[in-house]
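Would you mind writing out a protein's amino acid sequence and the numbers that encode its backbone to help me picture the idea?
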Amino acid sequence: MKKILSVILFSLIASALTGCNDIQPVVRSSEPSSNIESSVTESSEVKEESSKTEQSSKENVSETESSKEEVSKTESSADANSEAEQSSKEAVSETESSADGEQSSEPEESYDESSDKESSDEENSKEDDSLFSFKLSVNYVEYKVPFDYSELNAAGYYLDKSGTVEPDTHTRSLDWKDEYGHKISVQLWNPTDETKDYDECKVGSIEIKLGEEMNVILPGDFSFDFDITPETVKEHYGEPESEHIYDNYVTLRYKKDLSSTVEFFIYTDETMQKFSSVTVKNFV
Protein backbone atom coordinates (compact mmCIF):
# COMPACT_ATOMS: atom_id res chain seq x y z
CA MET A 1 0.00 0.00 0.00
CA LYS A 2 2.77 2.30 0.89
CA LYS A 3 4.52 1.32 -2.28
CA ILE A 4 1.43 2.10 -4.32
CA LEU A 5 1.03 5.46 -2.62
CA SER A 6 4.68 6.18 -3.16
CA VAL A 7 4.34 5.31 -6.86
CA ILE A 8 1.29 7.44 -7.21
CA LEU A 9 2.90 10.31 -5.35
CA PHE A 10 5.97 10.02 -7.47
CA SER A 11 3.85 9.89 -10.56
CA LEU A 12 1.98 13.00 -9.50
CA ILE A 13 5.18 14.81 -8.70
CA ALA A 14 6.65 13.70 -11.95
CA SER A 15 3.49 14.75 -13.77
CA ALA A 16 3.52 18.06 -11.99
CA LEU A 17 7.12 18.52 -12.85
CA THR A 18 6.45 17.61 -16.43
CA GLY A 19 3.56 20.07 -16.61
CA CYS A 20 5.73 22.79 -15.26
CA ASN A 21 8.36 22.00 -17.78
CA ASP A 22 5.81 22.16 -20.56
CA ILE A 23 4.57 25.60 -19.49
CA GLN A 24 7.95 27.20 -18.87
CA PRO A 25 9.46 26.65 -22.27
CA VAL A 26 6.35 28.07 -23.92
CA VAL A 27 6.50 31.20 -21.80
CA ARG A 28 10.22 31.55 -22.04
CA SER A 29 10.38 30.86 -25.70
CA SER A 30 7.71 33.43 -26.56
CA GLU A 31 9.12 36.33 -24.65
CA PRO A 32 12.83 35.96 -25.35
CA SER A 33 12.12 35.13 -28.99
CA SER A 34 10.18 38.33 -29.41
CA ASN A 35 12.84 40.37 -27.66
CA ILE A 36 15.62 38.77 -29.65
CA GLU A 37 13.78 39.19 -32.90
CA SER A 38 12.97 42.76 -31.96
CA SER A 39 16.53 43.32 -30.94
CA VAL A 40 17.78 41.68 -34.13
CA THR A 41 15.33 43.72 -36.18
CA GLU A 42 16.29 46.91 -34.45
CA SER A 43 19.94 46.04 -34.82
CA SER A 44 19.39 45.25 -38.45
CA GLU A 45 17.51 48.50 -38.98
CA VAL A 46 20.21 50.41 -37.11
CA LYS A 47 22.82 48.72 -39.25
CA GLU A 48 20.83 49.50 -42.38
CA GLU A 49 20.36 53.09 -41.27
CA SER A 50 24.01 53.26 -40.35
CA SER A 51 24.90 51.72 -43.68
CA LYS A 52 22.62 54.15 -45.46
CA THR A 53 24.10 57.02 -43.45
CA GLU A 54 27.58 55.79 -44.24
CA GLN A 55 26.61 55.38 -47.87
CA SER A 56 25.04 58.83 -47.90
CA SER A 57 28.12 60.19 -46.16
CA LYS A 58 30.30 58.49 -48.71
CA GLU A 59 28.16 59.87 -51.51
CA ASN A 60 28.32 63.33 -49.94
CA VAL A 61 32.05 62.95 -49.57
CA SER A 62 32.23 61.75 -53.17
CA GLU A 63 30.08 64.66 -54.29
CA THR A 64 32.21 67.00 -52.22
CA GLU A 65 35.36 65.54 -53.72
CA SER A 66 33.75 65.75 -57.15
CA SER A 67 32.79 69.33 -56.43
CA LYS A 68 36.30 69.99 -55.27
CA GLU A 69 37.62 68.44 -58.46
CA GLU A 70 35.25 70.64 -60.50
CA VAL A 71 36.34 73.67 -58.50
CA SER A 72 39.94 72.64 -58.96
CA LYS A 73 39.35 72.20 -62.68
CA THR A 74 37.59 75.56 -62.82
CA GLU A 75 40.41 77.17 -60.89
CA SER A 76 42.92 75.45 -63.16
CA SER A 77 40.99 76.68 -66.15
CA ALA A 78 40.83 80.14 -64.61
CA ASP A 79 44.56 79.96 -63.92
CA ALA A 80 45.14 78.86 -67.49
CA ASN A 81 42.98 81.70 -68.75
CA SER A 82 44.78 84.06 -66.39
CA GLU A 83 48.11 82.80 -67.69
CA ALA A 84 46.86 83.20 -71.25
CA GLU A 85 45.67 86.70 -70.48
CA GLN A 86 48.97 87.44 -68.78
CA SER A 87 50.84 86.07 -71.80
CA SER A 88 48.61 88.14 -74.05
CA LYS A 89 49.23 91.22 -71.91
CA GLU A 90 52.96 90.51 -71.98
CA ALA A 91 52.80 90.10 -75.75
CA VAL A 92 50.89 93.37 -76.03
CA SER A 93 53.35 94.97 -73.64
CA GLU A 94 56.25 93.68 -75.74
CA THR A 95 54.53 94.97 -78.87
CA GLU A 96 53.94 98.35 -77.24
CA SER A 97 57.51 98.32 -75.98
CA SER A 98 58.65 97.53 -79.50
CA ALA A 99 56.46 100.32 -80.80
CA ASP A 100 57.80 102.60 -78.10
CA GLY A 101 61.26 101.48 -79.09
CA GLU A 102 60.52 102.38 -82.70
CA GLN A 103 59.06 105.69 -81.54
CA SER A 104 62.03 106.31 -79.26
CA SER A 105 64.28 105.63 -82.23
CA GLU A 106 62.49 108.50 -84.11
CA PRO A 107 64.00 111.19 -81.92
CA GLU A 108 67.43 109.73 -82.84
CA GLU A 109 66.49 110.09 -86.51
CA SER A 110 65.04 113.51 -85.70
CA TYR A 111 68.32 114.26 -83.84
CA ASP A 112 70.31 113.13 -86.87
CA GLU A 113 68.10 115.25 -89.09
CA SER A 114 68.49 118.12 -86.66
CA SER A 115 72.23 117.57 -86.68
CA ASP A 116 72.22 117.53 -90.47
CA LYS A 117 70.10 120.68 -90.43
CA GLU A 118 72.52 122.33 -88.02
CA SER A 119 75.41 121.34 -90.27
CA SER A 120 73.51 122.70 -93.24
CA ASP A 121 72.76 125.91 -91.32
CA GLU A 122 76.43 126.22 -90.42
CA GLU A 123 77.40 125.74 -94.06
CA ASN A 124 74.82 128.31 -95.11
CA SER A 125 76.09 130.65 -92.43
CA LYS A 126 79.65 130.21 -93.67
CA GLU A 127 78.47 130.80 -97.21
CA ASP A 128 76.58 133.91 -96.08
CA ASP A 129 79.76 135.15 -94.37
CA SER A 130 81.76 134.57 -97.53
CA LEU A 131 82.29 137.36 -100.04
CA PHE A 132 81.25 134.85 -102.67
CA SER A 133 77.70 134.84 -101.36
CA PHE A 134 77.60 138.17 -103.30
CA LYS A 135 75.34 139.70 -100.68
CA LEU A 136 75.33 143.21 -99.31
CA SER A 137 73.10 145.57 -97.39
CA VAL A 138 72.66 149.16 -98.54
CA ASN A 139 70.83 151.48 -96.18
CA TYR A 140 69.36 148.39 -94.44
CA VAL A 141 68.04 146.88 -97.68
CA GLU A 142 69.59 143.54 -98.55
CA TYR A 143 70.57 142.52 -102.06
CA LYS A 144 72.11 139.43 -103.59
CA VAL A 145 73.84 140.04 -106.92
CA PRO A 146 72.46 139.47 -109.49
CA PHE A 147 69.03 140.86 -108.65
CA ASP A 148 66.10 142.37 -110.53
CA TYR A 149 66.06 145.94 -111.79
CA SER A 150 62.77 146.44 -109.93
CA GLU A 151 64.45 145.95 -106.53
CA LEU A 152 66.38 149.19 -106.91
CA ASN A 153 63.20 150.97 -107.89
CA ALA A 154 61.48 149.58 -104.78
CA ALA A 155 64.35 150.89 -102.62
CA GLY A 156 63.84 154.42 -103.99
CA TYR A 157 66.58 154.53 -106.64
CA TYR A 158 65.89 155.58 -110.17
CA LEU A 159 67.71 155.64 -113.47
CA ASP A 160 67.13 158.69 -115.65
CA LYS A 161 68.00 156.79 -118.82
CA SER A 162 66.35 154.11 -120.91
CA GLY A 163 67.71 151.70 -123.42
CA THR A 164 68.09 148.07 -124.43
CA VAL A 165 70.64 145.35 -123.75
CA GLU A 166 71.70 142.73 -126.26
CA PRO A 167 71.43 139.00 -125.40
CA ASP A 168 73.99 137.71 -122.90
CA THR A 169 75.70 141.08 -122.50
CA HIS A 170 75.82 143.89 -119.94
CA THR A 171 75.98 147.66 -119.99
CA ARG A 172 78.71 150.02 -118.86
CA SER A 173 78.28 151.56 -115.40
CA LEU A 174 75.08 153.55 -115.00
CA ASP A 175 74.51 155.92 -112.07
CA TRP A 176 71.34 155.50 -110.02
CA LYS A 177 70.27 158.09 -107.44
CA ASP A 178 67.81 158.27 -104.57
CA GLU A 179 65.85 161.29 -103.34
CA TYR A 180 68.77 162.41 -101.16
CA GLY A 181 71.19 162.47 -104.08
CA HIS A 182 73.05 159.35 -102.96
CA LYS A 183 74.48 157.61 -105.97
CA ILE A 184 75.35 154.01 -106.78
CA SER A 185 76.77 152.71 -110.05
CA VAL A 186 75.38 149.51 -111.56
CA GLN A 187 75.78 147.42 -114.67
CA LEU A 188 72.59 145.98 -116.14
CA TRP A 189 72.85 142.41 -117.43
CA ASN A 190 70.72 140.54 -119.92
CA PRO A 191 71.29 136.76 -119.39
CA THR A 192 68.66 135.76 -121.99
CA ASP A 193 68.96 135.11 -125.73
CA GLU A 194 66.65 138.04 -126.61
CA THR A 195 67.17 141.78 -126.53
CA LYS A 196 65.69 143.32 -123.38
CA ASP A 197 64.81 146.82 -122.19
CA TYR A 198 66.67 148.15 -119.16
CA ASP A 199 63.78 147.50 -116.82
CA GLU A 200 63.65 143.84 -117.91
CA CYS A 201 67.30 143.24 -117.03
CA LYS A 202 69.14 142.27 -113.87
CA VAL A 203 71.71 144.17 -111.88
CA GLY A 204 74.88 142.13 -112.43
CA SER A 205 77.32 144.55 -110.80
CA ILE A 206 76.98 147.24 -108.10
CA GLU A 207 79.64 149.79 -107.01
CA ILE A 208 79.38 152.04 -103.93
CA LYS A 209 81.80 154.81 -102.88
CA LEU A 210 82.54 155.90 -99.31
CA GLY A 211 81.77 159.51 -100.15
CA GLU A 212 78.11 158.70 -100.66
CA GLU A 213 77.92 158.25 -96.88
CA MET A 214 75.54 155.31 -97.03
CA ASN A 215 75.31 152.44 -94.59
CA VAL A 216 76.92 149.50 -96.38
CA ILE A 217 77.34 146.07 -94.74
CA LEU A 218 79.18 143.25 -96.51
CA PRO A 219 79.04 139.49 -95.73
CA GLY A 220 80.18 138.52 -92.24
CA ASP A 221 78.84 141.80 -90.80
CA PHE A 222 81.77 143.78 -92.22
CA SER A 223 81.11 147.53 -92.42
CA PHE A 224 82.36 149.41 -95.46
CA ASP A 225 83.06 152.78 -93.84
CA PHE A 226 85.84 155.33 -93.30
CA ASP A 227 87.69 152.98 -90.95
CA ILE A 228 88.40 150.58 -93.79
CA THR A 229 92.01 149.75 -94.68
CA PRO A 230 93.62 147.02 -96.79
CA GLU A 231 94.66 145.34 -93.56
CA THR A 232 91.16 145.23 -92.05
CA VAL A 233 89.82 143.71 -95.27
CA LYS A 234 92.47 140.98 -95.32
CA GLU A 235 91.99 140.27 -91.62
CA HIS A 236 88.29 139.66 -92.25
CA TYR A 237 88.34 137.90 -95.63
CA GLY A 238 91.85 136.54 -95.89
CA GLU A 239 94.39 137.04 -98.64
CA PRO A 240 92.91 138.23 -101.97
CA GLU A 241 93.38 136.68 -105.36
CA SER A 242 95.40 139.71 -106.34
CA GLU A 243 96.69 142.83 -104.62
CA HIS A 244 98.08 145.92 -106.28
CA ILE A 245 99.76 148.69 -104.31
CA TYR A 246 100.12 152.15 -105.75
CA ASP A 247 101.34 155.47 -104.39
CA ASN A 248 98.05 156.55 -102.85
CA TYR A 249 95.71 153.56 -103.17
CA VAL A 250 95.56 149.77 -102.99
CA THR A 251 93.34 147.35 -104.92
CA LEU A 252 92.30 144.00 -103.49
CA ARG A 253 90.57 141.56 -105.80
CA TYR A 254 88.73 138.45 -104.54
CA LYS A 255 87.80 136.24 -107.46
CA LYS A 256 85.53 133.21 -107.70
CA ASP A 257 85.88 133.16 -111.48
CA LEU A 258 86.23 135.70 -114.27
CA SER A 259 82.55 136.67 -114.08
CA SER A 260 82.24 136.67 -110.27
CA THR A 261 84.47 138.99 -108.26
CA VAL A 262 84.53 141.42 -105.32
CA GLU A 263 87.00 144.34 -105.59
CA PHE A 264 88.10 146.89 -103.03
CA PHE A 265 89.61 150.16 -104.24
CA ILE A 266 91.04 151.76 -101.09
CA TYR A 267 92.78 155.13 -100.98
CA THR A 268 95.61 155.40 -98.49
CA ASP A 269 95.72 159.17 -98.95
CA GLU A 270 93.20 160.56 -96.46
CA THR A 271 92.32 163.45 -98.74
CA MET A 272 91.18 160.95 -101.37
CA GLN A 273 89.61 158.42 -99.01
CA LYS A 274 86.04 159.37 -99.96
CA PHE A 275 86.70 157.86 -103.40
CA SER A 276 87.39 154.44 -101.93
CA SER A 277 84.88 151.96 -103.27
CA VAL A 278 83.69 148.34 -103.24
CA THR A 279 82.35 146.60 -106.34
CA VAL A 280 80.35 143.34 -106.16
CA LYS A 281 80.05 141.66 -109.56
CA ASN A 282 78.32 138.36 -110.40
CA PHE A 283 77.31 137.75 -114.00
CA VAL A 284 76.04 134.19 -113.48
Observations:
- Residues 134-282 form one domain.
- Residues 91 and 97 are 9 Å apart (CA to CA).
